[in-house]
Amino acid sequence: MRLRLIPREERFFDMFVEDAANVLHGARLLEAMLRTYEHPERQAKELFAVEHQGDEISHAIGKRLNTTFVTPFDREDIHGLISGLDDILDLIEEAADTFILYHIDRPTPEAIEQAGVIVRQCELIHEALTKLRSFKALQRYWIEIHRLENEGDRITRAAVAGLFATQQQPVDIIKWKDIYGLLEGCIDKCEDVANIIEKIAIKHA
Fold it and tell me: Of the N and C termini of the chain, which has fewer Cβ atoms inside 10 Å?
């Protein structure tokens, strides 16, 4: 066992969990918005507030990072982790806002399915970060997040193909391609965060 002359700043781990919990809250709001679609404008505003909260958490972590001498793991990985979580939430909020801006009457089953994949990925990220302190038993999380990313790719391909298989107006095809692309981008960002968690765990194995 290595003796630490200067203790690590352990508060970071709690802040990562807080950040991931906020991202998960945003993912669940998006899915709820698409499943009910009764008050989408109000739900999109809620998501905007959650995204703002995420910015504040990221700023707090960044401030602590700048004033901490001994961090729990590499500074570049801490930056990568908080930036990745921020990217996920930004895309969630942008996707919700795009439904409003594009005056979407109702979500497609595929969009709802994509949102469900995002929620499941965010649940796994949150759970993984609650266990990050030990750097152990994390492999199953990134493996499942990768599997879900593949599932998300399948859903997106089928959704886009479906746009061209039906007699849709060109403007509607453009709108839905944008929306599917945003949701797919969010799924991809979740995989990016899983890759960072894997990197951190391997370094500290």
Answer: N
Residue 162 lies in a domain: yes
Domain-located, residue 190: yes
**b/e map 167-204, b = 16+ CB within 10 Å:** eeeeeeeebbeebbebbbbbbbbbbbbbebbbbbbeee
HEC profile of the chain: CCCCCCCCCCHHHHHHHHHHHHHHHHHHHHHHHHHHCCCHHHHHHHHHHHHHHHHHHHHHHHHHHHCCCCCCCCHHHHHHHHHHHHHHHHHHHHHHHHHHHCCCCCCCHHHHHHHHHHHHHHHHHHHHHHCHHHCCCCHHHHHHHHHHHHHHHHHHHHHHHHHHHCCCCHHHHHHHHHHHHHHHHHHHHHHHHHHHHHHHHHHCC
> Which CATH number covers residue 21?
1.20.58.220
Give CA–CA dist 79/75, Å, rounded: 6
Rounded to whole angstroms, how far apart are CA atoms 143 and 111?
A: 23
CB atoms within 10 A of CB 108: 16
More confident residue, 87 or 11: 87
| Residue type, position 102, single letter | Y
